[in-house]
User: What shape does this take?
Amino acid sequence: MTEVVHHAKDLAPAGAVVMTMGALHEGHASLIREARAQAGTSPVTVTVFVNPLQFGPNEDLARYPRTLDADVEIAARAGADVVFAPDVDEVYPGGQPQVRIAAGPMGERFEGASRPGHFDGMLTVVAKLLHLTWPARAVFGQKDAQQLALIRRMVTDLNFPVDIVAAPTVREPDGLAMSSRNRYLSDLERESARELSRALFTGREAAPRGPAAAVRAARVILDHAASLDPPVAVDYCALIDPADFTEAAPDHTGPAVLAVAAKIGATRLIDNIPLEFGAAQ
Assistant: This one.
């Protein structure tokens, strides 16, 4: 039976941890199943905490869904032993922390440019939760590619004794990447939102012709999506070097991430696919 824990003093070291802000769906369940596979017979802990530090002043902290009972059921079915669901005072007992993790230049690009301070808040809570749960491994989704890259950088730079495991993006049958924010979309907005994954898949098909071709192909789809009703308002569509989250050069070789962010109505969505480019012949 899955145990629900609200206080850090009641936690034991985890074999693997999955960190969430709740409103769990099949995408989260896939992370928990991966953590279960990684942990073997050791405990799997799922954290459920809506972190106020990573929400901007005009973002959706107040309306972010809180569904703990349903979250516990999903976590249990996926193989979690413990759900750690602290309140804000438990995580930040002195109020908003004066000392925080700084994401640096890597956290100021792309998502960081659109959401100043977001990644500082994210890294601060991830660092705290790693200390509180003491896992051997932590599993994060590829869908949040910049978050994943920054956590890997933090763990390397600050010598955290944990392995970071990436799990692939889980998609709806229509291709839309699973996200807790999908529930905010109306039926018509959902139709428009499908163009994000269609752009990425089109870019992937063009990738054998090189990095520039992949980006051009994706942008053709998104240019059309801007004329839909409701429109897709693109923030960025870029091919990114995952090592430092800078835009990849036209002659880039090796791994890359084709990433997109856009607003449909009042809802901001992100998506990406990993690509690999060989050396020019």
